[in-house]
Design brief:
The structure is a homodimer. The first copy, chain A, is an alpha/beta fold. Chain A contains 17 helices and 38 strands. In chain A, strands 29, 30, 31, 32, 33, 34, 35, 36, 37 and 38 form a ten-stranded mixed β-sheet that branches. The longest helix of chain A has 20 residues. The first copy, chain A, starts with 9 loop residues before the first helix and ends with a strand. The interface between A and B is large, with 120 and 122 residues.
């Protein structure tokens, strides 16, 4: 059993797969089907060029409500010398008469006519040559201007000329395309068949969405994400029920799927662990082409071809053309799984559908934080992107392959190509954008201390068509980021041990020479987050220190530079407790929820944090201190942030915040400092 | 009856409609429905914020296949001083022992453990302390490096912490969002209900798609385009069968639709002509708010509110809140109809769905041709957009409201705001792009003389992921455009009367100082396009002239600066025929197909053009001259155009061209001129 995978470079892996598909004559549009021309054709891909069968309009049509005339009959008409035209009552012109005939917009022009005079430019006359209201059926009309031939006429073929190319093959149909196809005389349309993709989730630890969970259970939602991706790419996905880790069972299901699908995705089990059967399954039913690709996240990918159905061919001696069903062993981590489909499946579906590959807009952005990357891998890094002043910034999100929220929050994907060991903060990188630039220009970048109010703020700002992307780096980190021009505002609650005042001295220290406005967001309680029922009977910081000497209380701290840590240090100092007495003082978390999670999971007995975080995870809370959480805003962004200022005086927002435990909204919106 | 509409400005019209919807309490999400979390949720809009019900992972999970350990047990392990850890066979640790336990990726960490050592970093030992292959069940393991706490562990809540905001309300669901929602403990999701939109096509002249057409019939495809737009915007459309122009019948159908729909689109009849019933219908069933909007194309728009169902309320005395169904009278021209839906319906559907409005990316482009616009109107001009060198260019397409192909070909929409009478060529305009910038950067802009081969070229280039956008301005116009840097290449067939040579002297004259490569595309026959059977017995240019003196042959010419006109003038000169002898010499068409169409429709008896155009419209052709059609390419675009050069040596392309009548492909690709 091979414990190590032999990763090959991404482009080689793709080329190998493509070659196998070519050998199996599968590197082309799968097949063509004719469908009716209706709304369901939307998004389908034309399989053949569409040539016009008829012209549009298919006759000379009046472009206005008015009177059809012969332009030559109108020559000489002037305001002072009007011309009278007799209204024609049959379809044949009267010899040697000046004539006109009423036409509605869209009516065919009579054979004898070559121009139209709009109704508002004529005087309708009755049989006594008096002006009448009988617009459509006067006896004659009077005109006071001549017209040129073909005016107010839509000539035959103005829009479409029979035989011209209406749309090329490989075109994804949009609403107006359907109109043009109809106008050119078609009532059905040949499109590429939707590729059928089977998604087989395997793993004894998997349970369906919505299951009541016990430790070790993993919710099987990859098949939902993958199926939705396939649907979005124009394919048709089948989600199979969860298959236990059983080699024979997996083989059976793969063969079953191969009979009715064009591509099989075997999700998880693609690595080389004890229960990773995917490679062995592909080996048994066909041929493994690639096992391991030098790409992150997602390197344990399997690319292979398997036979169709349950025939009894010998896979050792059978040529690849006998294995007509491509199969991909997709890694189990959700980020890896989703990116694997983007990287390997999208080009195949594009080819099978005959469309060009989906391509994201690429923009150059400035990296806000150093990225370290394995030199041998193509490394796809999810980034949040925002525009601060003139600079487009890319802030790396969680690198964890298990962190699906990093994909949810991502505004784009940066590729750190193999051969690069990393990229420094401040350097330029190319980012493929998931959003349009105008969306990104509406993104408010917040940085600094974490507060639950920011989640509520994100919700309320979304209603105002603004997106809040917040990065948690602690209060000091936020001020430093503002100085570097990396965010629009920072949340901060730094207590100055000298003055007992919040934030101002730190702002002057960390962002000198930057004019700011500082506005209070909330007053809030900080205290000790402890397990439900407070089993260790902790009541104060003092308790904590004493007991921790006996190693009986495990503390979890916030990271250096965070306001909460400043607060802890301030009060430990006041109580003369050396931090060596606190077990876990050096164990850092980056958010209040992180601290609460550490306590809830048993990793720690207590930590300093806010009441709301304790409430969120159903923990107990021992209130200790009051503090103020401010928004620090460089003055240049005040106008950009006006939707945010609106929120601070919005009673709906205030009420929503006050429903969180331990928050005081009475200070909200108070201006703490405003530079000239 | 009011013949003139009173157009009001667009923003006033929108504000009036919004106010009426607010009065009727319809300016909000229509209603909320709970749907299962599956692929059908894709594209739906969250109606409420989604807060995490559980954490993910919901336990401390091993991030690797390997051995769970206590980090403190590993302290001191070094290459030279390995540490042995006993494999634990029960779930309880052995007091005072250094222990380890096998875990697969995703397995819960045992309560006593706080780190994982990957399998590849351990030596598995059997009961005799010999290295073994029994990876999962050795007796002990040997390690040669210490590990830090929580390494290779995915702590509880690494991805999602219970209670955190997963997604805000008003979010359009993407594949990864569905994964994150599942991961946070949901199995259903509250989304906004899809608004139901009724589309009622009215008009006695309308016939269904696919009908055999007679003069005056109009294919009813607007409802297809509108329904597809509604679908794309997230609504549900019902297409009603065509309704004749009958006031009572239209009223009846509107009332019927009002019972089961949220919005009614009454297509056509929105103007003020004799058979335009829409305004009267809305008046009878409710209230007309706006009739006529100062916007082009599309000004005869009706905005109104009607009652629901067939109750018997008196509309005169009834407050607006009693008219709960918005109705829009949509103009009949296809471009007007489609843009009316974009302008008036999209903001309403966005509000009803609770999502933000679709917004197109705006870019600044240089206008290639002067646009004249009525000063009082907001004028939406369809443009082709391409990048030539560093310049983003916008070339106005047909302005006709009936020309749906102008929307098909459009890469973007430029707004000429009211108050502006026009914009000059070379000025900058803002263009809302229908395509991504990377698509636009792949667009090849061709300009100059029209040839049917260009349609085939477009099809073949599409297969190479290039888009060909061609503008027909005649050969000379194309050379002038190249000089101005407005296209990548020009098609030209200008015969020099002095030298009898094609193109070169004109290139030097019209684009001096520009280095070019000139490549032959095709040799082709020019001749007279005449009606089927040649009823007037035309055999030569001479015939034409003689007869035209008797006014019995009507000619149609090509525009000045076109190669075909040069050819005509050259031979008329040789034959000593003054062009005054040719009836219709001054009647211009801009393309070969335009000439053929004029002949087919009876507007002219003959015109000079290419055989393929005659063949296309089933006309007869009298061959007269041979000419060469060249591609003129500024040298700076040679690399960009490499897919085009590939085509010229592609036998599939050559064969396709040679199947058109009158083409000689033997010259294809011959270099006529290449500047150093």
């Amino acid at each position: 059993m091979s414990v190590y995978l032999h990763d090959i470079p991404l482009n080689q892996a793709q080329a190998k797969f493509q070659e196998a598909l070519q050998d199996a004559d599968l590197w082309r549009v799968l097949s063509v089907e004719e469908i009716p021309l209706d709304e369901n054709a939307l998004g389908r891909v034309t399989a053949e060029p569409i040539w016009a069968q008829i012209s549009s309009p298919h006759y000379h049509a009046s472009a206005m409500d008015g009177f059809a005339v012969r332009a030559e009959d109108t020559v000489g008409a002037q305001p002072s010398t009007p011309i009278h035209l007799r209204i024609l009552n049959s379809q044949f012109p009267i010899p040697n008469s000046l004539i006109a005939q009423y036409v509605d917009t869209g009516d065919p022009l009579p054979d004898w006519a070559n121009a139209v005079i709009p109704i508002e430019n004529v005087e309708s006359l009755d049989e006594n040559n008096q002006i009448t209201n009988a617009i459509r059926k006067p006896s004659s009309i009077r005109i006071r201007a001549s017209v040129t031939p073909w005016i107010h006429v839509r000539p035959l073929g103005e829009d479409i000329v029979a035989t011209q190319l209406v749309l090329p093959a490989g075109h994804i149909l949009r609403p107006v395309d359907l109109g043009a196809i109809a106008a050119s005389g078609h009532q059905s349309i040949k499109v590429s068949r939707k590729p059928k993709v089977a998604i087989l989730p395997t793993g004894s630890e998997l349970v369906p969405i919505g299951s009541k969970l016990k430790s070790g259970d993993i919710l099987e939602y990859n098949s939902l994400v993958l199926a939705s991706q396939i649907k979005q790419m124009g394919g048709e996905a089948t989600r199979y029920p969860i298959i236990k880790d059983d080699f024979d069972l997996i083989c059976e299901k793969v063969l079953e799927a191969s009979q009715t699908h064009d591509l099989i995705l075997l999700n998880a089990g693609s690595s080389a662990g004890a229960e990773d059967f995917s490679a062995k399954v592909v080996e048994k039913l066909g041929q493994v082409l690639v096992h391991g690709v030098a790409v992150r996240p997602g390197h344990p990918v399997i690319l292979g071809m398997v036979k169709k159905g349950i025939g009894n061919r010998n896979s050792e001696t059978t040529p690849i053309s006998q294995f007509p069903i491509p199969i991909i062993g997709v890694p189990g981590y959700p980020v890896s799984a989703s990116l694997t489909v983007d990287i390997f499946v999208e080009p195949i579906l594009a080819k099978w559908l005959g469309r060009k590959q989906n391509e994201l807009q690429t923009e150059e952005a400035i990296l806000t934080r150093k990225i370290v990357s394995p030199a041998g891998d193509d490394d796809f890094v999810r980034v949040a992107v925002g525009k601060v002043g003139d600079k487009l910034l890319a802030a790396p999100l969680s690198r964890g392959a298990g962190v699906i929220t990093s994909l949810v929050q991502a505004d784009g994907l940066a590729l750190i190509p193999s051969g690069t060991q990393g990229i420094d903060a401040g350097e330029k990188i190319q980012v493929k954008l998931y959003r349009t630039k105008s969306e990104i220009e509406k993104t408010i970048l917040a940085i600094g201390s974490h507060d639950l109010t920011l989640d509520l703020m994100a919700q309320f700002l979304a209603e105002k068509n603004r997106r809040l992307a917040s990065a948690n780096v602690g209060s000091q980190g936020g001020l430093v980021a503002l100085r570097r021009g990396e965010a629009h505002f920072a949340g901060s609650h730094l207590l100055d041990p000298q003055t007992g005042e919040f934030n101002i001295s730190y702002i002057r220290q960390y962002m000198p020479n930057i004019k700011v406005k500082v506005v209070a967001l909330v007053g809030r309680e900080q205290g000790l987050i402890v397990k439900k029922g407070n089993p260790k009977g902790i009541k104060s910081l003092g308790d904590l220190a004493t007991r921790s000497q006996e190693r009986s209380v495990q503390f979890v701290n916030r990271q250096r530079g965070s306001g909460t840590r400043t607060l802890l240090d301030y009060y430990l100092n006041q109580l003369n407790i050396p931090h060596e007495y606190i077990a876990g003082y050096h164990q850092d978390e980056y958010t209040h929820l992180g601290v609460a999670t550490a306590v809830a999971s048993g990793r720690a007995d207590c930590g300093l944090g806010i009441a709301a975080a304790a409430q969120a995870l159903d923990l107990d809370f021992i209130p200790l201190f009051q503090e103020r959480y401010d928004l620090v805003i460089p003055k240049q962004f005040i106008e950009f942030l006006s939707p945010l200022f609106d929120l601070l005086v919005d009673s709906r927002f205030q009420e929503a915040v006050s429903q969180l435990k331990g928050y005081d909204v009475s200070v909200m919106g108070t201006i703490i400092l405003e530079d000239e």
